[in-house]
Write a structure and sequence with these properties.
The protein is an alpha+beta fold. Helices cover about 55% and strands about 10% of the residues.
Length: about 625
């Protein structure tokens, strides 16, 4: 396969043929396989769904015990691989697009101000015979130079940031294919051209206004008022887009804070995680003996308080869903229940700090025929046992197929599936992991990072031929599980800060331009006795109108987009009032600062000099 091919996940490096042995073929409820097929050229997805549904119905009639009540879902492989990140990437694309629009409107405002200062030049050229189309082409050519210069600087930033993106988003499908190629250059050229069109459109349209040809008379002061309408509209649009981005950033940051503050139900701070190379061809008895030696070696290391094994890291690797039935209690309507399973050794609960609230932990045995015992969490006991005493009851199904697993204890709920997942009914199959030779190893110690080398050395001394890898504190693994959420919040926050800065610059530019155009009027008013507070108040009112209009439009835009962001948030509503008010407050504060600077300049105008000019 090509280097960029990763299936079913990015960690897969080797594919081998699966030999379906007799034992596997006899387990009809083994539902841990997924089928991938290529449709014939004339077969639609709907037809394939109908065909496989009919096949499943026949299987349900032939094998009612195991196949009744089950259906078939057919979906494109692309949706399965990239579907979970499509919305997040679309959100980032939308944020970048809004930032581009803000930048374009900002440059348009600056070009309009520059065009007003060149009004005499343009009017003179028109009177000498230059057509407005020729002037428009010149303005567009000037804008294209600006846009291409920005595109070149942007590409330089892309070259510098590719490595950073690869390290920060390792779980994004095909992230290793991220590179600057001909398609990237073509995209930058197209976006630069589009940006030139967007921010050159306003000054080009201004040249076709009837007042433009007469702007040379009186230095353009007579048309200054009319030329303020378009810049003010553009500034309001910038403020609206900046408000929407600020609200989005606030929602994502608050969601990330809720995730990080959510009680996990276990204590990862003093746990070191590692794995030791193993083979699935290892006989169960040999695997059990090796696991016993491994735990003994780890417990002999000074500073290690407890050690255990697990089929996944709590909070980082989701537990496995599987059917089950409470022994002696027929399933209603013949339908089995579902719960998630995690296979652990007896010291798991002490190691990760999950308290046992009833009963005890399991008794370990190196006998490969010894049945597993089970501990269930509080959610399982409340939902499936309905306040009946769970100790001593049996579970049908689980790691031993149709065998019975006896419940020996109840533990507190823990977020085994991650920060953002509420605790669900969970069964801990407890015993030596004879069928999972390369399970996760967890070590409780006061300083996990400092104990990493000692633990590695103990494993090498025990068996030098087996590689020791993925050695890291459990807290690092949990932070890695939040990497995409954190990076998404960081990017949107960065975009919103840039948008706010650009909008503030645009508002400042319009207010400063208005002050410069009205300097003669302001000077006369000061000479006639106008107080500085009156002058500043008028400028603040003008800026306040733009800010209120832009903020209201931005809030409306954020409400419309809230349905798209709802699935990416945790513990907070997409229309959270506090976040909206905070974003509006930040915007008003920045807008006030952007208006005060031109206001101070206005009250410092010398009336005599203004009259002479």
């Amino acid at each position: 396969m090509p280097r960029a091919f990763h299936y079913p996940d990015i960690s897969t490096e080797v594919w081998t043929p699966k030999q379906a042995n007799r034992v596997l073929l006899q387990i009809r409820e083994a539902r841990f396989y997924a089928a991938v097929g290529r449709l014939k050229q004339d077969v639609t997805l709907e037809r394939a769904q109908a065909d496989l549904t009919a096949v499943q119905q026949k299987l349900a009639e032939q094998y009612p015990k195991t196949d009744s009540g089950w259906g078939v879902l057919v979906e494109p492989l692309k949706d399965r691989v990239v579907g979970k990140v499509r919305l997040a990437l679309g959100l980032l694309l939308g944020s970048v697009s809004l930032l581009l629009l803000i930048a374009c409107s900002n440059v348009a405002c600056l070009l309009l101000a520059r065009l007003n200062s060149r009004s005499a030049e343009i009017a003179t050229r028109c009177s000498l015979g230059a057509g407005r189309a020729a002037i428009a082409r010149q303005l567009f050519a000037e804008g294209l130079v600006y846009a291409l210069a920005g595109g070149v600087l942007g590409m330089a930033a892309v070259f510098a940031g590719i490595g950073f993106l690869r390290t920060q988003l390792p779980d994004i499908p095909r992230i290793d294919e991220l590179a600057v190629d001909a398609r990237s250059l073509a995209l930058v050229a197209a976006v630069s051209f589009l940006a030139a069109v967007l921010f050159s459109l306003a000054p080009i349209l201004q040249t076709f206004r009837p007042a433009s040809s007469g702007a040379a008379i009186g230095g353009g002061s007579r048309v200054a008022g009319s030329r303020q309408r378009l810049p003010r509209f553009l500034v309001s649009a910038q403020l609206a887009l900046a408000t929407a981005l600020l609200i989005g950033a606030g929602l994502f940051m608050r969601s990330l804070m809720r995730l990080e503050e959510a009680p996990l139900g276990f204590r990862p701070e003093n746990v070191l995680a590692l794995r030791v190379g193993a083979s699935f061809s290892e006989p169960p008895g040999a695997a059990i003996e090796r696991h016993q030696r491994t735990l003994d070696a780890l417990l002999s290391v000074p500073g290690v308080q407890s050690a255990s094994m697990s089929t996944g890291l709590p909070g980082a690797n989701p537990a496995w869903p599987r059917e089950f039935q409470i022994g002696g209690e027929p399933a209603p309507d013949g339908t089995l229940s579902f719960a998630t399973w995690r296979m652990v050794t007896a010291g798991y609960f002490q190691t990760v700090g999950i308290p046992i609230v009833e009963g005890r932990t399991c008794r370990m045995s190196t006998d490969p025929t010894q049945a597993f015992e089970a501990l269930v969490n509080r959610s399982f006991a409340d939902r499936h046992l309905q306040r009946r005493d769970p100790i001593g009851r049996t579970i049908l199904g689980g790691p031993q197929g149709d065998g019975e697993t006896r419940i020996v204890g109840v533990v507190a709920d823990a977020r085994e599936d991650g920060h953002g997942k509420e605790p669900q009914p969970l069964i801990y199959g407890c015993g030596f992991l004879r069928y999972w030779p390369d399970s996760e190893i967890l070590v409780q110690t006061r300083n996990p990072a400092a104990m990493a080398n000692a633990v590695r050395e103990a494993m090498r001394t025990l068996d030098p031929s087996r590689p020791v890898y993925s050695v890291r504190p459990l807290t690092d693994a949990l932070q890695g599980a939040l990497s995409q959420t954190r990076f998404r919040a960081l990017l949107v926050t960065l975009f919103s800060m840039m948008a706010l800065t650009l909008a503030a610059i645009g508002l400042y530019g319009v207010m400063a331009y208005m002050v410069s155009q009205r300097s003669r009027e302001i000077g006369i008013r000061i000479a006639l006795g106008a107080r500085p507070a009156q002058i500043v108040g008028e400028i603040l009112r003008a800026g306040g109108v733009l800010t209120v209009a832009g903020t209201a439009a931005g809030i409306a835009l954020a409400v419309v987009a809230s349905k798209l962001t709802a699935t990416l948030l945790y513990g907070i509503q997409p229309t959270d009032v506090a976040t909206y008010l905070s974003a509006a407050g930040v915007l008003f504060g920045v807008a006030l600062l952007a208006c005060l600077i031109p206001g101070r300049r206005a009250i410092s105008i010398d009336p005599a000099q203004a009259l002479r000019e």
